[in-house]
Amino acid sequence: MIRFLLKGLLRDRNRSIFPVLVISGGVMITVLFYCWIFGVMGDVTQTSAKMDTGHVKIMTQAYADIAGQMPNDLALFGIGEMLSKLRQEYPETDWVARVKFGGLLDFPDEYGETRAQGPVFGIGIDLISPESTERKRLNLEDALVQGRLPQAEGEIVVSEQFAVDLGVNIGETATLISATANGSMAIHNFILVGTVHFGVAALDKGAMLADISDIQYALDMEDGAGEILGYFPNLIFDEKRAYAMADQFNNAYRAVEDEFSPVMLTLKDQSGLGAYLDMVDFYIFIFLFGFIFVMSLVLWNTGLMSGIRRYGEIGVRLAIGESKGHVYSSLIYEAILTGIIGSAVGTALGIGISYYLQEVGLDISGMTQSSTMMMSNVMRARVTLPAFYVGFVPGLLATALGAVISGIGVFRRQTSELFKELET
Amino acid sequence: MKNEILITTAHLVKKFPIGGHFFTALNDVNLTIRAGEFTGLVGPSGSGKTTLLNIIGALDNPTEGVAVVMGQDTKTLNHKQAARLRSECLGFIFQTYNLLPVYTVFENVEFPLLLLGIASSDRKKSVMKALEWVGLTDKVSSRPSQLSGGECQRVSIARAMVKRPKLVLADEPTANLDAANSHNVLKMMLQLNREMGTTFIFASHDEKVIGYLRRKIGLTDGKVVEDKIISTQNHEESETPC
Predict the structure, then answer these.
(1) Does any domain span residue B234?
(2) Residue B189, strand partner residues
(3) pLDDT of residue B237
(4) Highest mean pLDDT: which of A96-100, B3-7, B171-175, B177-181?
(5) Alpha-carbon gap: A234 to the closest alpha carbon of chain B (Å)
(6) Which of residues 192-211 of A touch B (CB under 8 A)?
(7) Is the CB of A422 less than 8 angstroms away from the CB of B88?
(8) d(CA A1, nearest CA chain B) in Å
(9) Would you say residue B92 has pLDDT above 60?
(10) For residue B56, what is the domain's CATH number?
(11) What is the pLDDT of residue A321?
(12) CB contacts < 8 Å between A and B, how many?
């Protein structure tokens, strides 16, 4: 009987190819959408984590309240000891200190007069120590456009676009004009040794990177840093772990009444990323639910059309003596089979296209020139394990549901009308 | 078995609700049909032929009275039991053939045997035998769309006969056929009736069909107005499974 039904299914293109096309199209779009959203949103999260938030971040409570203003007068001090403790207590997490600052970067001519000058967003990171993990994390080797990365104290790199805009060259002296942690004016000379392309519009407009020890010296904050960032292994954000760590740390070190006591925030607690990620999850859920609903309607309609087209066939089968339950279950089996094939084809296509978009990406630098978001200029999909079932399961469910609903018509069929119906 | 009573109807009444009234399609129909008959329900449109065929075929229930088909009161059968009765003991021939278009001639004829769960080798033998009866062994792999109307009806007869039912119900089997094909098909059914003892009940107002009948039951306005034996003939004992 199964072989008999299969033959009918394969020979009748309206029962096989058309539903398979509908299902595979829907599943493909779902998988592609999921991978794309996951890739883009994941990229935003990862870029933010790498450049700004870490997976967890420790600041003073006062600094955390206005972190966007980079208030180094509220920075953490005694970070050497704190880093040692953190590395002991949470050895699997990579802990790094950073100093973020704003200022003017001035390039003088041979007479010491300003030749070019521009506002910069600066980050002091561990660039020159042998055990530095920051170079790799920020992908600085690949981001280098001209010159080299700092190898000694007093060297900086700036974003390529910034250097081009100001017309400055490698080897020139750059004077940073900023504010110290004490609120006085800071002036410090550096040598420009390279330019980098971050691939993040917010940084490419005007950023400088220097070794943290230089910045601590320039901003008068020895053994101090605005932020201590923690990164989980393989740069994968683990929400549960982050919150557990934050709770443990805050219980141990945070004193609510002391605004200079440290506080640990997770990635989701910063820059509105929590709401952003929750929104993404919500939209993915809505999309998948909507997909199942719409596909069920489409496939229900397909099932109804098929039922109308196969009205005679079903009538004959009932008249010959096939029970309604058997006819109904055969319609559902057919739907499950087409659902499996359509969902598999759609999943394969969706993953194939997503993989291409993961490898090649979509360059949106033209649209993000004025963006201040920590997002990459190349948007990429990301193929993950859920991509293999996120479209497949709804595709199969929608098909089965469509058949279950449309097939109910079989039970409404009056056998007493069969002769009449079959002879019209 | 010769003279075995296959069908008995007693005071059979069937009413259909139409608007606020009831239309009486069958009115006090009392009949006995024995194994091996070649009987026609004859009458104009609306006389109750198809309604009676429906009740005999366990496709519908009477409003009043009793219809006993092969020992089973059709009114007491649930849907599954009625389907089983049709599947195991009855064959149907329709005016418009109603072959399954995506299947070959062989597969169309094989279908009733699949429902009965008959083994593949036995199915093949039975299908080929049935196609031999109707002279279509050369069309085994053809699709219904590749056949003429007469050939389609012969396939339909083979499909009805393949499980060797005791009773075949045929509703206007020649209505879509030309005269030559009608005679061919009727001769074939008559031959099957004679050789295998299968009971045929026709619903028809086609004179060509009436000419082949051995018993004519005239219906008018749901009542039996004529029940006439046209000829009698002895039949071999049936080999049917029911």
Answers:
(1) no
(2) none
(3) 39
(4) A96-100
(5) 56
(6) none
(7) no
(8) 6
(9) yes
(10) 3.40.50.300
(11) 86
(12) 85
Residue B111 has pLDDT above 80, yes or no: yes
All structural domains of chain A with their residue ranges: 2-47+275-422, 56-231
**pLDDT at residue A120, rounded to an integer:** 94
Q: How far is CA B20 from the centre of its chain?
A: 33
In this structure, are residues B151 and B139 in contact, taking their beta carbons and an 8 Å threshold?
Answer: yes
Tokens 């923690």 appear where?
A: A230
Residues A192-215, mean pLDDT to the nearest whole number: 90
Q: Is B12 left (phi over 0), alpha (psi -120 to 50) or beta?
A: beta
Residues of the domain holding B47: 5-229
Question: What was the pLDDT predicted at A89?
Answer: 93
What is the average pLDDT across A93-119?
A: 93
Q: In chain A, which among 303-332 make CB contacts under 8 A with chain B?
A: 312-313, 315-326
Q: What is the mean pLDDT of residues A44-68?
A: 89
Residue contact B95–A312, C-beta within 8 A: no
The residue in chain B having the minimum alpha-carbon distance to the alpha carbon of residue A325 is B80
User: Between chains, do B100 and A12 touch, taking CB under 8 Å as contact?
Assistant: no
**Chain B closest CA to A420's CA: distance in Å?**
8
A419 touches chain B (CB under 8 A): yes
| Cβ–Cβ below 8 Å for B98 and A312 | yes
**In the predicted model, is pLDDT for residue A371 greater than 80?**
no
Longest dimension (CA), chain A: 106
Q: Is residue B240 part of a domain?
A: no
Q: Is the dihedral of CA A14, A15, A17, A20 positive or negative?
A: positive
Please tell me the predicted confidence (pLDDT) of residue B241.
43
Helices (H), A254-390: 273-309, 311-320, 324-359
Whether A319 sits inside 8 A of B80 (CB atoms) is no
Stretch A225-237: mean pLDDT, rounded? Answer: 89
CB-facing half-sphere around the CA of B39: CA atoms within 13 A:
26
A8 and chain B: CB distance < 8 Å anywhere? yes
Q: Is the pLDDT of residue A376 over 80?
A: no
Tell whether A4 is within 8 A of chain B (Cβ). yes
Q: Is residue B241 assigned to a domain?
A: no
The count of residues in chain A is 424
What is the number of domains present in chain B?
1
